[in-house]
Amino acid sequence: MNKNDEVVPSPGEQRLSRASVQRFSLYLRHLERWNHEGQQIVSSGQLGEALAINDAQVRKDLAYLGNLGQPGIGYYTRELITALRHRLGVDRVWSAVVIGVGNLARALLRYRGFSQQGFQFVGLFDSDVKKIGQMVEGLEVLSPDALPKVIAATKAELAVVAVPAEMAQAVADALVAAGIKGILNFAPLTLKLPQHVSLVAVDLAVQLEQLAFLVHLSPSAPEPEA
Amino acid sequence: MNKNDEVVPSPGEQRLSRASVQRFSLYLRHLERWNHEGQQIVSSGQLGEALAINDAQVRKDLAYLGNLGQPGIGYYTRELITALRHRLGVDRVWSAVVIGVGNLARALLRYRGFSQQGFQFVGLFDSDVKKIGQMVEGLEVLSPDALPKVIAATKAELAVVAVPAEMAQAVADALVAAGIKGILNFAPLTLKLPQHVSLVAVDLAVQLEQLAFLVHLSPSAPEPEA
DNA sequence: CTTTGTGAATTGGTTCACAGCT
DNA sequence: AGCTGTGAACCAATTCACAAAG
Q1: Considering only alpha carbons, which residue of chain A is nearest residue B164?
Q2: CATH number reported for the structural domain that contains residue B127 in this entry
Q3: Helix (H/G/I), strand (E/B), else coil: B74
Q4: A190–B103: do the CB atoms touch at under 8 Å?
């Protein structure tokens, strides 16, 4: 089959598998640590071992970043990091608002990994009047009424929804109306969003159930094979 | 088509796709709500719409539970719930310990969804001497030294690891040594575990990066097609 | 007529295996 | 020698499409 004109790999955007993007963040984390430890070169085998995946998989993934690999050598750590950050879109600052000031929100706000990766929280909202006005991790808790103004003023593009399930869809609708571009949802329901708003959902109860299930049907006898 | 001997669906364990299990928890959540609202019958189309997936997918998934569907009718909500809970292994109580008493742990402890699904937290551990002895959500914070005893005494099978990355592998090793069967890991690293211990990992920073990436390459123009 | 259950087709993702570069 | 990049093979998951059941 000739492939001259069928699928031209346009230099800007190759097709990249949903799953490989999941791994990009993980590569990045390991690379940043190794870079920090002074390691200047890294191989697909090393990365594969760290993430417990096949080395060919790693090369396939990294090939999406361009031909950064040096045959016989490996990849230059710094170069990979730069390319990954660029590809993931984290080579710039992302502003995010957080709706729902519970323990989960506090955990997120306090986690310094975010600022290291270029995320900053620029607004904190809760409909509980007892919380409004409080300072939490350096931010004042505001009424959700202020959402449109704050989002417009800060140009926040991302939002974290950490409210009870009953309120989550209404909150999401307000966020969409205010022009937010992506939502990280922790509320245990399936949010309905217009397709131009991106969604990542994390349901902690589902994860724990998942684990229970794995244990439930786990090979209880550790096979005596190396 | 005879199916007598080729792939005998042994009543105990059919092969079930990893991905479909991910969805079982989600089906269960919707079904429980609908059941609560008095809906006695549900169709694959309804479930598919709720989770934004194909209806054939739903039927394939549910077929793993046995032939519960009534052609021309749908599924009986109660029956589905019972079967799902049984299959997921959540038709019993699971005991879990939590290591690392930060905001994330508090969020988990406070979330009532867990107890509703049959999860109970029976031990809370932190190596910070300032936290040891404190009461948190009705549990006393203990030193990690007490892990083996508590796990033996409570027969806890699951553990939630919510400690900083530097400590996580050591904590995991201690949990494995104490006989834990599954770990839900929130620390941002890839834990190395013996294969008889199950693992579910949730990395919040990765999820936020994922979202940034989606927005980064999102079709910024909402296509004017219905 | 509605909805299930499921082979067949399709799509997507992973692993293999090796040519080619250093 | 060692390691990358990638077509081909393989495996897994999703969707199609339709026969069978109520």
Answers
A1: A111
A2: 3.40.50.720
A3: strand
A4: no
Output the six-digit token pair for B65. Answer: 């539970």
Give dist(CA A33, CA A44) in Å, integer: 16
Whether residue A213 and residue B188 make contact (CB cut-off 8 A), yes or no, is: no
Q: Which residue gives the smallest C-alpha to C1' distance to D21? A: B71
d(CA A40, CA B161): 31
B57: nearest nucleotide, CA–C1' criterion: D14
What pLDDT does A28 receive? 96
Report, as an integer, the average pLDDT of A197-221: 87
Same domain, A108 and A174: yes
Asked if residue B222 is part of any domain, the answer here is no
Amino acid at B116: Q
Q: In the predicted model, what is the mean pLDDT of chain B?
A: 89
Q: Is residue A37 domain-resident?
A: yes
Whether B29 and B60 map to the same domain: the answer is: yes
Rounded to a whole number of angstroms, the distance from the CA of B165 to the nearest CA of chain A is 11
Q: Which of B87, B82, B117 lies closest to B24 in space, CA to CA?
A: B87
What long-range pairs does A59-65 form, CB within 8 A, spacing at least 24? A60/A20, A61/A20, A61/A23, A61/A24, A61/A27, A62/A27, A64/A14, A64/A16, A64/A20
Cross-chain Cβ contact A213/B24 below 8 Å: yes
Answer yes or no: is B192 within a domain. yes
Q: Is residue B113 part of a domain?
A: yes
Quick: pLDDT tens for A116-159. Answer: 889 999 999 999 999 999 999 999 999 999 999 999 999 999 99
B82: CATH = 1.10.10.10
How many domains in chain B? Answer: 2
Helices and strands in chain B: count of H runs, count of E runs: 9, 9
Give me the residues paired with residue A94 across strands.
A119
Query: Strand C: which residues 15-44 of B lie within 7 A (CB)?
Result: 43-44
Query: A with B: how many residue pairs have Cβ under 8 Å apart?
Result: 200
Distance in Å, residue A67 CA to nucleotide C21 C1': 12
| CA pair distance B111, B176, nearest whole angstrom | 26
Query: pTM value?
Result: 0.89
Determine the Cα angle at B67 with ends B64 and B68, to 5°.
100
- Closest approach of chain B CAs to the CA of A134, in angstroms? 17
The domain in which residue A162 lies consists of: 94-208
- B205 CB neighbours in chain A (<8 A) are 25, 29, 111, 113-114, 117
**pLDDT grade, residue A113 (50/70/90)?**
confident
* pLDDT for the residue numbered A220: 58
pLDDT digits (tens, 9 = 90+) for B95-117: 999 999 999 999 999 988 898 89
